[in-house]
Design goal:
InterPro entries: Gfo/Idh/MocA-like_OxRdtase_N, Gfo/Idh/MocA_Oxidoreductases, GFO_IDH_MocA-like_dom, NAD(P)-bd_dom_sf
Largest sheet: 9 strands, mixed
Bound molecules: nicotinamide-adenine-dinucleotide
Mean pLDDT: 93
Strand content: 15-25%
GO molecular function, one term: nucleotide binding
Distance between the termini: 36 Å
Structural class: alpha/beta
Number of helices: 11
CATH superfamily of the largest domain: NAD(P)-binding Rossmann-like Domain
Keywords: NAD
CATH class of the largest domain: Alpha Beta
Organism: Brachybacterium alimentarium
Protein name: Oxidoreductase
């Protein structure tokens, strides 16, 4: 099972936007780089978009881009789409204005940095990069080039999640957030071989969604990870991760990828405790508020023309290129989500609580080392600390 076949919260077809985003101008001509499972999902997303148009597809495997175009793009539209193995060559031939980087995580840093330095803004699939040091380096490359680099965290673009935030705010704001995640997928492939499949490949979505629900900046992470005796994964398929925020809020994620029987939605099940009551969300339907002193309130259903997941990421990115607001997942903001993931792995491996400020300082040193070998960006030299650098994005 490819990653792209991971279920989305709603069928993508139901999410086709009807209303152009504010600030939108001409369609943004884009090249999709990486023609694997998720790359094909992105090709389809661009094809149905009212903010971007597909002008090229790239894959490092010879012939893979042309094959993906033949599979996904209607025959009548294939002629105008450039294909090849080199991003900058295809982007130039296709007169692209932006790149969507859907390569494997190990390729995110070189593909994105090359595109930025060629003057092309980038919308990248999660994770931002393979390591936190590479992610921090990319924040520096975005500064050095002045080009937008945004990470698509698709599950953040779920109208129910934002409705849960609105309901929690009406009750005084979420101070205790709990996520329960139980699934039992048989992926095969790399997920069944890696050391921390749940934390790295899945919990990143919940950590990022938690940041939508909670005010403030994450401070520390404590994690326990384990592999139940019946697990079909080589690495730890279950974990409990506790993230503290400088607002005093705490987000606890408890999840498993080997729990058949009572399963949650792919977004997990959420409870938000606030001063004036609580909010419950099953990850699929509108959340519900339970005020301490009143009747239960069912949250608003999403608007018919609401944009979801990849459609929303793309529309937000294109709107930003046409003068709209900078997306919340612009690289400087998104690095915090990757920092939580890396801190959770380190805490699980060491048994220690990990302070994000320390981890980010270490990543800053690592990013500077990468940049000095690369020679194209000196932006990180101006960062006083990892935390401080991320707040200037
Ligand atoms: N948001 C989500 O829910 C979600 C779901 C699945 C995957 N993803 C992310 O999408 C990305 C791609 O995942 P996938 O499942 O499609 O992987 P995949 O292995 O199926 O496809 C990746 C493709 O990138 C190509 N590639 C690798 N290096 C390249 C380079 N330097 N230049 C051009 N092409 C290159 C590979 O040949 C391959 O065809 C990953 O970052 C993954 O984490 C996100």
């Amino acid at each position: 099972m490819s990653a792209a076949s991971e279920p989305t919260a709603v069928p993508a077809a139901a999410a086709v936007p009807a209303v152009p985003a504010p600030g939108e101008g001409a369609l943004v001509p884009v090249v999709v780089v990486g023609a694997g499972g998720m790359g094909k999902a992105w090709i389809s997303t661009v094809l149905r978009s009212d903010t971007a148009r597909l002008v090229g597809v790239v894959d490092v495997i010879d012939g893979a881009a042309a094959k993906a175009v033949a599979e996904v793009v209607p025959t009548t539209e294939q002629a105008g789409i450039a294909t090849g193995t080199d991003t900058l060559d295809v982007a130039q031939r296709a007169q692209a204005e932006a790149v969507i980087d859907v390569t494997i995580p190990a390729a995110h840093h070189p593909v994105t940095a090359d595109a930025l330095h060629a003057g092309l803004p980038v919308l990248g699939e999660k994770p931002c990069a393979a390591t936190l040091a590479e992610a921090v380096s990319l924040a520096g490359h975005a500064e050095a080039t002045g080009k937008l680099f945004t990470v698509s965290q698709s599950r953040r673009h779920n109208p129910h999640l934002h409705e849960a935030r609105r309901l929690a705010d009406s009750l005084g704001g979420a101070g205790i957030v709990n996520t329960r995640f139980s699934k039992a997928p048989r992926f095969g492939g790399f997920r069944e071989e890696m050391a921390h499949p749940l934390i790295i490949d899945m919990a990143i979505h919940a950590f990022d969604a938690g940041r939508v629900l909670i005010d403030g900046t994450p401070v520390s992470v404590t994690a326990t990870s384990y592999n139940p005796s019946w697990s079909w994964y080589a690495g730890d398929a279950a974990a409990t991760v506790v993230i503290t925020y400088d607002s005093g809020a705490v987000h606890t994620f408890s999840g498993s990828w080997c729990s058949p029987g009572v399963e949650t939605s792919w977004n997990g099940e959420w409870t938000l405790s606030c001063g004036g009551g609580s909010v419950a969300w099953d990850g699929e339907t509108p959340p519900t508020a339970c005020p301490a002193d009143g009747e239960q309130i069912v949250g608003r259903a999403p608007a018919a023309d609401a944009r979801w997941e990849l459609d929303a990421s793309l529309a937000e990115f294109c709107a930003a290129l046409r003068g709209g607001p900078t997306p919340a997942s612009e690289v400087h903001g998104n690095v915090w989500t990757q920092a939580i993931v890396e801190a959770a792995v380190r805490s699980a491996d060491s048994g220690q609580r990990v302070q994000l400020a320390d981890l980010l300082d270490e990543a800053l040193e690592g990013g500077r080392a990468l940049d000095s070998v690369d020679g194209r960006s000196r932006a990180l030299q101006a960062w006083k600390t990892g935390r401080a650098g991320l707040s200037i994005g």
